[in-house]
Design a protein that fits this description.
Layout lengths: L13 H27 L4 H34 L8 E3 L1 H19 L2 H32 L2 H26 L1 H16 L10 H15 L19 H13 L4 H24 L6 H17 L6 E3 L3 H7 L4 H15 L2 H8 L2 H22 L5 H29 L11 H9 L4 H8 L2 H16 L3 H17 L14 H19 L9 H5 L4
Antiparallel strand pairs: 1-2
């Protein structure tokens, strides 16, 4: 339909249900970061609700404006309805900024204001790195098999977006199960609910009612007020100056922002797999600039195109759902309603929405790659399991220390590592896999998919790239360092050599059956 008769409607009735899902996703992130900043890093409410949250809202508004425009343009180009890319604060990167940038500054200085200043400085500088991903993003998208890009997203979805919220549901089963069954019925099963109520909205209402009945929710106006977004240029400059005076913090920023623009690239590929095509370079610039805008207005936390476009596509959403989020989130931020909602809505009531997003992403990936490439998707997921284990092992050690256990060794202590190995816990291997997990998953997924297709030079190129990145600590390393040939980087070089050389001497080899051919019985 390119005869001029097609008109893209920004709003569709399906946007209402999709809005509640995306709104809940953003709301949980804002609730988590506000709680950690206020109660772990002792930031005053004036900074948390008066600067950080409004700044994040400004960044979300800016990015959503661009993604609505991109959706309108894509619909006009293809002459059909499209679903706008979801947008918000990057959940994995948010935790890195909290505990890799803001936390160390606070713990070393006991100065929450300085920690916030360094946070927004890091956010601004990180936004520049993320935007620079547009230079290499389109090329990476061309050479990287879809299975590698989507597989590493599936790993994030499985362990962080799906498993953690599901654990929250089981921690509070009365609230969580009441909400969960509605999400399964209305969003996963796609059955109509009474009076066509959006499943996300009904799940929040029912979960909140159950929490009220159990005394786990309350109505409180504490923190409600007017918090207009203001630029904090002086604080931003102070934070950037501290960064350059302590350049070791860039060792955290650079890898995580490389992760961020790779995540954007993967999410654009996920949307393409679902049928909607967006320019990856434009999206990466948008995410970087949105992060920089948020930093100017007080938010340290990077924004990105969200995981989960296939879920909203499946709902039949257009662009109205992100427009709604772009209106409601700022309203809640500027008038202090986030604190009100934080007291009102239990996390267990909202968690099932994230479980649905994870289920949709994994399911859509399985349907959008050829069956032989599911081996590549699977191996791309595995590093994220290691990342999950490392996070939880660190949490366990922190909990032991907080409970008064004395003389605890640090994770990585040789004696502890040896003891863990005796118990079947391969700490060193999981540590290596967890460092740069999204890149590691993408690389191994790309290698396996390329080998399956007989594209050995392409697979060898990814192995060489992995050798280079591991030699400087971008992956499989605790921090950036000068190039050095370690065991892992040498292993990648051996793999690359094999992938380049072996096919030269065995050009006429007949490929062996693929996994799906082996496991599928003959008809």
């Amino acid at each position: 339909m390119r005869d001029g008769s097609y008109t893209y409607r920004l709003f569709h009735r399906s946007d209402f249900s999709a809005f509640w899902a995306l709104f809940t996703d953003n709301l949980i992130n804002l609730m988590v970061l506000a709680g950690i900043c206020q109660f772990v890093f002792q930031m005053p409410a004036e900074i948390v609700f008066g600067r950080i949250v409004p700044g994040a809202a400004v960044a979300i508004m800016a990015g959503i404006a661009v993604y609505v425009w991109l959706a309108k343009r894509a619909a006009a180009q293809h002459g059909r309805d499209v679903t706008a890319l979801p947008y918000g604060i990057s959940t994995p990167v948010m935790f890195v900024y909290l505990f890799g940038v803001i936390g160390p500054i606070y713990w070393s200085t006991n100065d929450p204001v300085l920690a916030w200043q360094v946070g927004i400085g890091a956010g601004f500088m990180g936004g520049i790195v993320a935007a620079m991903g547009a230079i290499v993003g389109p090329w990476l998208k061309r050479v990287t098999p879809r299975a590698g890009m989507l597989g590493t997203l599936c790993g994030i979805a499985l362990v962080f977006i799906g498993t953690v919220p599901l654990a929250i549901v089981f921690e509070n089963p009365f609230v969580g199960f009441a909400s969960m069954i509605i999400i399964l019925w209305g969003l996963v099963g796609r059955f109509r609910l009474p009076w066509n109520i959006p499943a996300g909205l009904l799940a929040l209402i029912v979960g909140t009612i159950v929490a009220f009945a159990m005394g786990e929710a309350k109505i409180s106006t504490e923190g409600v007020g007017f918090y207009p977004p203001l630029p904090y240029v002086g604080d931003l400059i102070a934070g950037i100056q501290h960064l350059f005076a302590n350049p070791e913090l860039f060792l955290v920023l650079v890898p995580v922002q490389i992760y961020n623009f790779i995540e954007t690239m993967n999410n654009v590929e996920s949307a393409e797999a679902a049928g909607d095509h967006y320019p990856v370079a434009t999206c990466q610039i948008t995410d970087g600039v949105g992060t920089m805008i948020g930093a100017v207005f007080g938010s340290p936390f990077p924004t990105t195109a969200y995981i989960g476009h296939p879920a909203y596509k499946r709902m039949g959403a257009h662009a109205g759902y992100i427009i709604g989020v772009g209106a409601v989130i700022p309203l809640a931020a500027f008038f202090g309603l986030l604190a009100f909602l934080n007291n009102l809505i239990p996390v267990a009531a909202a968690a099932p929405v994230l479980v649905f997003v994870a289920l949709s992403l994994v399911t859509n990936t399985a349907m959008s790659v050829k069956p032989a490439h599911m081996a590549a998707v699977t191996i791309a997921m595995m590093p994220h399991v290691s990342a999950f284990l490392m996070v939880k092992w660190g949490s366990m050690m922190g909990a032991l220390g907080a409970s008064g256990v004395e003389g605890l060794p640090q994770l990585g202590d040789p004696a502890l590592t040896a003891a863990l190995l005796q118990q079947g816990a391969h700490f060193e291997g999981h540590l290596a896999l967890s460092q740069g997990a999204i890149l590691t998953g993408l690389i191994w997924g790309a290698i396996v998919a390329s080998v399956i297709d007989g594209r050995f030079r392409n697979a060898g190129g990814f192995a060489l790239a992995a050798a280079a990145m591991s030699s400087v600590g971008i992956i499989h390393g605790a921090s950036l360092h000068w190039p050095e040939l370690g065991g892992v980087s040498a292993g990648y070089l051996i793999a690359a050599t094999f992938l380049y050389v072996y096919p030269l001497f065995h050009r006429d080899d007949t490929p062996q059956p693929t996994l799906d051919e082996v496991t599928t019985p003959a008809e």
